[in-house]
């Protein structure tokens, strides 16, 4: 985050208070602060960028949107549906969903938390939009290795971790091991090393797990499938075993099952039983081509809170049968206050 002077931040806070709390126009604020209208606009933008202002938009109706409520009732998760126009590219879906997810995620992160992060294309997009928020004693730990035969994976995964650190002033704990081991015995031996155990212990203390979903068939390719992690034989094995997706390089079928998926024995990521023990499991997914992956993750019970693009939400809901029971809360995602700074 840029190093702003205290005077600049104080002016940004004053402008934001006048605009958001006292409903003064930019012209009136400019007159009161003896600056130009464009300066007021920049100060208000600065207040939002630095976390002095957090905007929450609530529906004017007590009932949540019908789509969100239906999805929450059916799958038992807290869901934020990101509205998008009908004609939009997959890249645009990802960016809109990532922007909303970053703001929602920032509101969930607080001091004295351990945040587990599974690297991937979706999380990379989310971290580009993370707003700054001051926290203390916050730790960010990488949940699965990123190395393969072509690269250490450190630049890619490290950049994601660094953005969390910059946004929240968090300590960072990389996990410099292969994403997928060649031999399960090698993984077992490395897991006994004290330096590796230190990271595994941090992973076990995670309060919040942030992840996207990989898919072997996504239109915007999941990094684990496009980054040289699998040879042709392994890709054929993935198809043969009916794998539709993965969470932190642990693979599952559309019914959420993992039995008999021997690839998971070589994975550096936490198995799904371990994931289910984490209290807050925050998933972000946008691509329509990840519908089966999302269905599998929901069936596996590894999601407690979901940020999902609208068309994908509808597609998954329509493909699911009815489920009895109610009582799960949903939250809407909307834009900021109208008439904001230009």
Topology:
Blueprint: H1 6-21, H2 26-33, H3 37-49, H4 66-75, E1 78-82, H5 90-108, E2 114-117, H6 121-127, E3 139-142, H7 154-168, E4 171-173, H8 184-190, H9 194-204, E5 208-212, H10 223-226, H11 232-240, E6 243-247, E7 250-253, H12 272-276, E8 280-285, H13 291-300, E9 305-309, H14 310-319, E10 331-332
Parallel strand pairs: 1-9, 1-10, 2-3, 2-5, 3-4, 5-8, 8-9
Antiparallel strand pairs: 6-7
Helix pairs in contact: 1-3, 2-3, 5-6, 13-14
Give a description of the structure.
α2 crosses α3. With 342 residues, the protein is an alpha/beta fold. The chain has 14 helices and 10 strands. The protein folds into 2 domains: 44 residues, Arc Repressor Mutant, subunit A (Orthogonal Bundle); 267 residues, 3-Layer(aba) Sandwich (Rossmann fold), CATH 3.40.50.1360. The chain is globular and about 70 Å long. 42% of the residues lie in helices and 13% in strands. The longest helix is centred in the first third of the chain and has 19 residues. The two termini are 22 Å apart.
Write down the overall mean pLDDT.
Answer: 85
Write the element-wise H/E pattern from the N-terminal end onward. HHHHEHEHEHEHHEHHEEHEHEHE
Main pleated sheet: 8 strands, parallel
Give the strand tally: 10
Strand order of the largest sheet: 4-3-2-5-8-9-1-10
The number of domains is 2
Class based on secondary structure composition and strand pairing? alpha/beta
Assign the CATH architecture of the largest domain.
3-Layer(aba) Sandwich
**Radius of gyration, rounded?**
22 Å
CATH topology type of the largest domain: Rossmann fold
Q: What is the terminal separation in angstroms?
A: 22 Å
Which term fits the overall shape? Answer: globular
| Amount of beta strand | 5-15%
* Fraction of residues in H or I helices: 40-55%
CATH top level class name of the largest domain: Alpha Beta
Uncertain parts: 60-64, 324-342
Q: How many H/I helical runs? A: 14
